[in-house]
Fold Maleylacetoacetate isomerase.
Amino acid sequence: PILYSYFRSSCSWRVRIALALKGISYDLVPVNLIKDGGQQFSAEFKALNPMQQVPALKIDGIILSQSLAIINYLEETHPNPRLLPQDPKKRAQVRMIADHIASGIQPLQNLSVLKQMGEKKMEWAQNCIASGFQALEQILQHTAGRYCVGDEVSLADLCLVPQVANAERFKVDMGPYPTITRINKALLELEAFKISHPSQQPDTPPELRA
């Protein structure tokens, strides 16, 4: 497999965590979203992903984009360890939380949106994340065990950790979200989350390396 990724992209990070958890080795091709006016806009990358976004994954003779679609494919082709619970209610909760982050928070503070916001981009990102986290904190109080849903790592957790990193980058006050903070801390102790971290990638700038 070949993963087209940007070290800081939260969507790419979700996929890197899934690949690490499932023990799938891959080659990484960095796509710098800032340099050269954004390498995702090159004709070469547009041929891979017409949406001109990372991640994209070349695997089993196909090219997949959209992080949740990629992770669902990995789940179906490499079922262990599972990222979707067997219990239908828990599985629905996992998908709900993943969608809450992947559709309801992350796109609103994405690079392409922030570019449009000009000087207000920090305030905009903080507001989008805070309103999403207020709802998420409430949801997690009903679903969480050690992790987002019970005590097993799931697709929801793969979405949570990169989104908390975004919140920290945009200086969101995490005080009101103790459940999110606790789960994030527990997840960052796991090897798959450590090795997929933005500070550990081949394209991480030297000053941001851990």
Summary: The beta strands are 2-5, 27-30, 56-59, 62-65. The chain has nine helices and four strands. The domain at 2-81 is CATH 3.40.30.10 (Glutaredoxin).
